[in-house]
Amino acid sequence: MTVNETSTGQPGGTRPAVQVAGLTKVFNPGRPDEVTALAGIDLTVGPGEFVSLIGPSGCGKSTLLRLVADLVAPTGGTVMVAERPARRARRDRAYGIAFQQSGLLDWRTVSRNVELPLEVRGWSRRERQARARELLELVGLADFAGHYPDQLSGGMQQRVAIARALAGDPPLLLMDEPFGALDEMTRERLQDELLRICARTGTSTLFVTHSIPEAVYLSDRVVVMSARPGRIVEIVDVELGERTEATRQSPPFFTGITRVRQALRGTAVTVPAP
Ligand SMILES: Nc1ncnc2c1ncn2[C@@H]1O[C@H](COP(=O)(O)OP(=O)(O)OP(=O)(O)O)[C@@H](O)[C@H]1O
């Protein structure tokens, strides 16, 4: 089986990967520490589309990602993943997830970390090993299958985490600042690798970042959110075509950065007077 093939057909297919409508999240409702984290969020991520979420700290980016992953329940509104309610999508493992910390298990080899989601699904040992080999090849770590996570650099660990997230051929990747802890050069290299992998596998991606250049470089659309309660203030379409060596120095790239920066500036947090 190649990375493009799944038992359920092409990842993503023609169905929207995510459909969020009227989504609201209030933490601790009715208590003195009540927080309205998100209000009235409508968002669709199309098949194979790369969408980034950016906004001031605390605007609800991670909460939105967690709602899509069904790790927290909405207060109002609906979340559909691959045209299924989020709860069902979680049960069906319709998405892969990667966070800032790779979350690898130290006591398992690289290959066995990648195999983990397949073990949960009851794949045979041989199938799991073959699939892990294929994915480690995809992320350029074929020679490190037998290593342990602490023998790898931070960037390599993140690549393993991405391989693990892709293991079950999910139609959707959810990523929360996966490159946030990496140096700039490693980060740029992994951005290119991620785009290559997404293009090859047809996976849709919802990606949280604090970096404007990262959001613009990676995305088809950048969703700019306001300070709490988080709302979508603007969705910036990015049209950079195929990313090449020259993209990061190209006028359309700088235009995209300026547009996102301007949208963010409109959301500046007002600091209360002392
Ligand atoms: N489990 C929780 N209980 C109570 N409040 C929460 C919980 N999780 C998040 N919040 C609050 O919801 C708001 C949004 O948090 P969230 O982590 O989604 O923001 P963010 O945009 O991802 O922030 P950052 O950019 O700093 O990572 C914050 O005010 C946060 O304190």
Task: Give your account of this protein's structure.
The chain is α/β, with parallel strands linked by helices and 274 residues long. The chain folds into two domains: 1-94 and 170-267, P-loop containing nucleotide triphosphate hydrolases (Rossmann fold); 106-169, no CATH class. The protein has helices spanning 61-68, 86-91, 110-120, 125-138, 154-166, 184-201, 212-218, 251-265, and strands at residues 18-27, 35-45, 50-54, 76-81, 84-85, 95-99, 172-176, 204-208, 221-225, 232-237. The strands form two sheets. Strands 6-7-8-3-9-10 form a six-stranded mixed beta sheet, sandwiched between helices. It has a four-stranded antiparallel beta sheet with strand order 2-1-4-5. Helix 3 runs parallel beside helix 5. The longest helix is centred in the C-terminal third of the chain and has 18 residues, at 184-201. It starts with 17 loop residues before the first strand and ends in a 9-residue tail after the last helix. The model is unreliable at 1-10 and 268-274 (pLDDT under 50). It binds adenosine-5'-triphosphate. Adenosine-5'-triphosphate is lined by residues 27-28, 35, 37, 55, 57-63, 228. Adenosine-5'-triphosphate (ATP) is lined by residues 27-28, 35, 37, 55, 57-63, 228.
Notable features of this structure?
disordered N terminus; 8 helices; alpha/beta; disordered C terminus; globular; 274 residues; 34% helix; binds adenosine-5'-triphosphate; 2 domains; Rossmann fold; 4-stranded antiparallel sheet; 6-stranded mixed sheet; ABC_transporter-like_ATP-bd
Question: What's this entry about, in short?
Answer:
It contains 8 helices and 10 strands.
